[in-house]
């Protein structure tokens, strides 16, 4: 890949766009416009943007309940995203799915699956179809460290390895499954060594460093295109509570000092260092203006969109008569 100055600025722009979008969602939630729980990606932006930078437009991803960053980084429609989160008919799932069911087929964001581990099997199915159809595409499964405790993870790893499927497994290890630290659930904070006997694996110790994320992901993606499935453990950290728009340091399951430590090596701090090293001016003010305008338009679109009608209640199901 061409790591030129424009590329670096684009990375910064994409991460800033995600951060500012989620900050606006916090305001909309606090103002009462969002009725369902939202899972924020604040603190984890480098993983989404870094992985997507190594993909092609035709590649497909499957996300989780914490899907905003993946959706935007893959090119999802922000207006449809806002509308969906606000439960409007113009949303990407017609207002029926909400924040945890984002998708944009045109962008290659196939589905967001809130059930822990479900994203993994969906992506394996995509990869199998690509191989059967001899299509030059890869599938990417995003999931958290908690999903590693599900049987579907190990079954999927085994199946993908056995059949040489074009799939990249990306585990965003943020140390916590809801309020449980990984050491209360698994024998080690490090997951990669347990997966490596099955498929090609690599751990990114600080996946807030987007430069390092891309350096690791790009060669793995090249291997996946050749039919060698790969696993990446991206060590990152969510700064907000598990779900919701606030902070939860008072709950006692993690410390504020731990959060400060991770915030000090956050996605923007690491990229700032690189940009300074390359003597690149970010054009930060111009970025803020462009992003703010896009978010304002998406918010206005969502707020002015209609809610789904009662007639839409039973559409998009397998057999409407079974529900009458």
Low-confidence stretches: none
User: In total, how many beta strands?
Assistant: 8
β-sheet strand percentage:
5-15%
Give the number of domains.
1
CATH class: Alpha Beta
Strand order of the largest sheet: 2-1-3-4-8-7
The average pLDDT value, as a whole number, equals: 92
> Percent of residues in helical segments?
40-55%
The number of helices is 11
Q: What would CATH call the homologous superfamily?
A: Thiamin diphosphate (ThDP)-binding fold, Pyr/PP domains
Euclidean distance between termini CA atoms: 55 Å
Characteristic key phrases:
six-stranded parallel sheet, alpha/beta, two-stranded antiparallel ribbon, 324 residues, Rossmann fold, 8 strands, 11% strand
Report on the architecture of this protein:
The model has no long low-confidence stretch (mean pLDDT 92). The chain starts with a helix and ends in a 21-residue tail after the last helix. The protein has a single domain (5-323), classed as 3-Layer(aba) Sandwich (Rossmann fold), CATH 3.40.50.970. The protein has helices at residues 5-30, 45-53, 68-73, 78-85, 118-132, 151-163, 192-195, 210-225, 256-264, 267-277, 284-303; strands at residues 60-63, 109-112, 139-144, 167-173, 176-177, 180-181, 200-204, 230-235. It has a 6-stranded parallel sheet with strand order 2-1-3-4-8-7, with helices on both faces. Helix 8 (210-225) links the parallel strand 7 and strand 8 (230-235). It is globular and about 50 Å long. The protein is built from 11 helices and 8 strands. Helix 1 (5-30) crosses helix 2 and helix 4 (78-85) crosses helix 11 (284-303). The protein is α/β, with parallel strands linked by helices.
């Amino acid at each position: 890949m061409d790591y030129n100055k424009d590329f670096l600025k684009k990375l910064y722009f994409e991460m800033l766009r995600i951060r500012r979008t989620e900050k606006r969602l916090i305001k909309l939630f606090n103002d009462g416009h969002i009725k369902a729980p939202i899972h924020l990606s604040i603190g984890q932006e480098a993983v989404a943007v870094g992985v997507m930078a190594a993909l092609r437009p035709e590649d497909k991803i499957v996300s989780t309940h914490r899907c905003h960053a993946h959706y935007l980084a893959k090119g999802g429609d922000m207006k449809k995203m806002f509308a969906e989160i606000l439960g409007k008919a113009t949303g990407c799932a017609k207002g029926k799915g909400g924040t945890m069911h984002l998708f944009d087929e045109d962008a290659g964001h196939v589905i967001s699956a809130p059930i822990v581990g479900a994203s993994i099997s969906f992506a394996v199915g995509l990869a199998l179809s690509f191989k059967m159809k001899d299509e030059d595409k890869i599938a990417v499964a995003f999931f958290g460290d908690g999903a590693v405790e599900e049987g579907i993870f190990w079954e999927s790893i085994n199946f993908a390895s056995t059949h040489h499927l074009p799939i990249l497994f990306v585990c965003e290890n943020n140390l916590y499954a809801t309020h449980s630290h990984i050491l209360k659930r698994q024998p080690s904070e490090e997951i990669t060594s347990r997966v490596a006997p099955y498929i090609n694996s690599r751990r990114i110790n600080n996946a807030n460093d987007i430069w390092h994320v891309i350096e690791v992901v790009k060669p793995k993606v090249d291997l996946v295109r050749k039919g060698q499935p790969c696993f990446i453990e991206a060590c990152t950290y969510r700064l907000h509570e598990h779900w919701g728009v606030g902070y939860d340091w008072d709950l006692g399951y993690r410390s504020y000092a731990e959060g400060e430590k991770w915030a000090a090596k956050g996605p923007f701090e690491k990229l700032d260092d690189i940009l300074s090293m390359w003597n690149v001016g970010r054009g930060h003010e111009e970025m803020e203006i462009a992003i703010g305008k896009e978010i304002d338009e998406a918010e206005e679109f969502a707020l002015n969109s209609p809610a789904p009608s009662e007639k839409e209640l039973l559409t998009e199901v397998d057999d409407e008569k079974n529900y009458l």
